[in-house]
Amino acid sequence: MDARIVNALIGSVYETIRDVLGVEPKTGKPSAVSHIEIPHSLVTVIGITGGIEGSLIYSFSSETALKVVSAMMGGMEYNQLDELALSAIGELRNMTAGKLAMKLEHLGKHVDITPPTVVSGRDLKIKSFGAVLKLPISVFSEEDFDLHLSVKSGG
Q1: What are 50-78's pLDDT values in tens digits?
Q2: Which of the chain's termini has less CB crowding within 10 Å, N or C?
Q3: How far apart are CA 5 and CA 11, in angstroms?
């Protein structure tokens, strides 16, 4: 995968979490993987089309999701994964994907993003085609976010 795309992804994730959640995230070492493993029970998928075809896939635990929603609500404690919480989670992913789209545009790759799909459950499996980059992220605790960028073409 093109290093410029990897750097755009890392920058987009870092800046969005910092600006929206008010937390300085730590990104782990990106690595190419042969398949997507989902370690957490909540997953958000955003499709990428145009100059790059693929998906941006986040996963985290319900506990982390509630911390995200609380931070997005200005620190007000939120303790249930209801429709509002899932909408907030989807919006955080939209912001990340939008920032990534802008960074890719500067690289000459015009892309569009699809609305986020939020899925929850145990033992989730996602099949993706093409190159897959895994990026572990620590926001509230060690590697509590897991991100995959799947690029089918253009990357």
Answers
A1: 988 988 888 888 888 899 999 988 888 88
A2: N
A3: 10
